[in-house]
Write a structure and sequence with these properties.
Pfam families: MDD_C (PF18376), MVD-like_N (PF22700). Helix content is 38%, strand content 26%. With 326 residues, it is an alpha+beta fold. A hairpin with a 2-residue loop joins strand 5 and strand 6. Helix 2 crosses helix 3. The structure holds ligand DP6.
């Protein structure tokens, strides 16, 4: 019996062009392409040990047992590995998150990317990076992109084989940086999974959103080629606001913003009118992420820390793709 153990680390990514809506719930095929930046500050480390003695998978996250809901979701993901490998072994799976969970800081992106990497390696599946990206996608859409470092594109594709991510710029050497403003790190009220389902089913603007993303993808890739941080930030901010307009136009309507998110957005506008180039994006939670050139970091931090406190501001640089440990 071989060792059947592996450990992997994946970093979270923040979408600059958002994924918001599934064409296929089971395979997690999105309606649109999307584009993200992998961050070095937030990551998940997961180890997987298959064990003949086990009669079910045993999961822990940050050394705590997982909820019934997560147990099912994770065991279902492990079934994909068992099917591909054509064996019936269960595993001990231990995950440590260096990310506030479910606070719109994209913990599911690093979690499922790390699990896909560790589990497939422990099962000796020998997947290519593309195959790994497709596998991670089955756990959570945004995890598709966390296989790669830097700026990454998820091609929506039309079936399981054609929907995967690829890197656009893995080095990102032009000063792009992000500050995460930790406004509220408790569990979000509307999961992205159910939020996007509601939007697809009820927002009259959903067809327009698909057009928005098509144009934004082209414009964003051109801005990246030019290494133009202002243009990148501008497109990302507009794209994020249009995504959040979908939640406001759903039935029932909802929003991930809270009062502090609006304060942060106002402050970014103020900084901008004072000549500091910075932009914001928000995901399925109230935390605001600021996009800027690293030369402006100190001015932005000084302004934001008056309102939010220095300890609630996390500076992050572009981060790497999947890493195997040990
Ligand atoms: C707003 O990947 O968490 O962060 O596929 O249902 O697991 P599921 O959703 P998830 O949604 C991410 C939404 C987003 C935008 C993005 O990351 O592209």
């Amino acid at each position: 019996m071989p060792k059947m153990f592996a450990s992997a680390r994946a970093h979270t990514n923040i979408a600059l062009i958002k994924y918001w809506g599934k064409k296929d719930q089971k395979l997690i095929l999105p309606y649109t392409d999307s584009l993200s930046l992998t961050l070095n500050e937030f990551y998940t480390t997961t180890s997987v040990q298959f064990d003949e003695q086990l009669t079910h998978d045993e999961f822990s996250i940050n050394a705590e047992p997982v909820s019934e809901h997560n147990q099912q979701k994770l065991a279902h993901f492990m079934d994909l590995i068992r099917n591909q490998r054509q064996f019936n072994l269960f595993a001990h799976v231990n995950s440590v998150n260096h990310v506030p969970i479910s606070a719109g800081l994209a913990s599911s992106s690093s979690a499922f990317a790390a699990l896909a990497a560790a589990a497939s390696k422990a099962a000796e599946l020998n997947l290519s990076a593309t195959e790994l990206s497709r596998l991670a996608r089955r756990g959570s859409g945004s995890a598709t992109r966390s296989i790669f470092g830097g700026l990454v594109e998820w091609h929506k594709g039309h079936d399981d084989k054609t929907s995967f991510a690829s890197p656009i710029d893995e080095q990102v050497d032009f000063g792009l940086e992000m500050i995460a403003i930790l406004i509220d790190t408790s569990v979000k009220k509307v999961s992205s999974r159910s939020g996007m389902q509601n939007v697809v089913a009820t927002s009259p603007y959903y067809p327009a959103w698909q057009e928005v993303v098509k144009n934004d993808m082209v414009a964003m890739k051109a801005a990246i080629l030019k290494k133009d941080i202002n243009l990148i930030g501008q497109i990302a901010e507009e794209n994020a606001m249009r995504m959040h307009a979908l939640t406001l136009s759903a039935q029932p309507s909802f929003t991930y913003f809270n009062a502090a998110s609006l304060t942060a957005m106002d402050m970014i506008h103020d900084l901008r009118s004072n000549g500091i180039n910075c932009y914001y994006t928000l995901d399925a939670g109230p935390n605001v992420k600021v996009i800027y050139h690293h030369q402006d970091r100190e001015v932005i931090l000084a302004a934001l820390s008056e309102q939010f406190g220095h300890n609630n501001l996390v500076v992050s640089q572009p981060g790497p793709g999947i890493q195997y440990l040990k």
